[in-house]
Amino acid sequence: MMVKGVCGKGAKKWKIEEVVVVVVGFESFLGRKGLVNYGITPIQHHMNFSLSRFVVTSPLLALNPELSNGHKDFNQNHSYPLHRDIYRQEKPNFLKPKFPILFNKPNKTQIFTAISIQETDFPRHSAPKELEKSLVILLSFKIPQNSLVSLICDCPGVLDFQFLKKWEMGFSNFVLLSSSPLMIKSVLEQSKRFQIDPDGFFKSVEVLRGLGFIDGTVSKVLEGFPGVILMNGKEIQRRLEFLAGIGIPRDGIDRVLRSFPGYIGFGVEDRLKPLLYEFKDFGFSVDLISREIIKEPRILSMELGEFSQCLEFLRTLKCRVPIKEKIFSEGEFRAGFEVKLRVDCLCRYGLIRREAFEVLWKEPRSIIYKVGEIERKIEFLIHRMKFNSRCLVEVPEYLGVNFEKQIIPRHNVIEYLRSKGGLGYEVGLKGLVKPSRLRFYNLYVKPYPDCAKMFGRFSGDVKVQSRHPVGLWKLFKPQRYPESKEDVKNTKLFMESLG
């Protein structure tokens, strides 16, 4: 990023004439807040600069095909805070951009250059041309845009031109049939952090091949757990022997490593064996455990004591019989792991474990929903409905209702009425979820015909069709037989005998 502007020595305001930014991805850099997304924020003392021209350029037109000339002007005036001492600090720690920012100041027109932001070995004195060459090399690896931005943000040192040039030559001589761009991204980050050269990496690959792994498995392991290049062959062999010891065949071991490569990073004595003993303590056989691990290798990611907590939760859970049958449909072992996945999902959105278990206890239906469906509901709750995730502790029923048929239509109705000023009070999450479908219709839809189409059911345009043709009940009416005199006589005798 190059910033052109003019400023006197005693000036308190910078007049920025032009900002030129070299970006990896157009969408990833420009957001609603523009430069603020780069992390230019005031800490203590700050001064303002006004922006009159904003130019985004890319070294490769392939990055931004929509920009015909390789650049785009934004003729909008914005004012962003800038730290007073930015041009004096060698490493401004307060900057937290998504991409390294470059400042420099030669001649009359100020061109500031400042690099890096984190305490890393970022190439401070790299010229913009070298950075451009580094980007070209990174792009030649065909790493997806989001992953590339994440790589540069997490490890700015990968922009070192000499480092990338060395690895470009190394990968050109490297033959791996199933190598993927994401594998290259993981290897580059790990190699830069631990100063690993291509020769050391190739030796690790040969170790994995020597253990009998096919290229596809090697690629998945390097992509998901690049730390394997720091391990020796004996350490890896011990992990494989553990899986073989519980009856998992060779193809099953390949499946475990492809689906969950992080398994190689677990210790055998301090993690895997105690976890196996925990499973056995609940009465599960080794055969069942091995079958479940092959089906879902992430079972091995459970912390010690976590499975016990989930299983005890299920054994004391009180809910309707049909729901409990669905929860245990694949067995008690798998049900315990499914609870763990949903607890982790809720914790990712800010709940603590106790609150997550409380939500599942109050709304057991959320256990039978897929994790992706739960995430979808929570994302909608936070980003569209503007509620805090902790509202789930008070209204766990939100996770148990149908997303398409109930949550979206009700939210649309409330938002429409709020925009028209038709609500005399604020409707919270409880008021949105708790009422029955008919009660919600009578409260918010029936008085306002415009909301009928949004809500769908019970609206005037929707006709509820009968499930059977009219008059079908007559076909199922039992045939009536005429009563004979003998039947009447027998009935009277029977009634008299009772008296």
UniProtKB/TrEMBL annotation:
GO terms for biological process: DNA-templated transcription termination. Coiled coil: none annotated. Transmembrane segments: none annotated. It comes from the Eukaryota. Keywords: Transcription, Transcription regulation, Transcription termination, Transit peptide. The keyword Calcium does not apply. It holds the Pfam family mTERF. SMART domains: Mterf. One of its GO terms (molecular function) is nucleic acid binding. Belongs to the mTERF family. This is Uncharacterized protein.
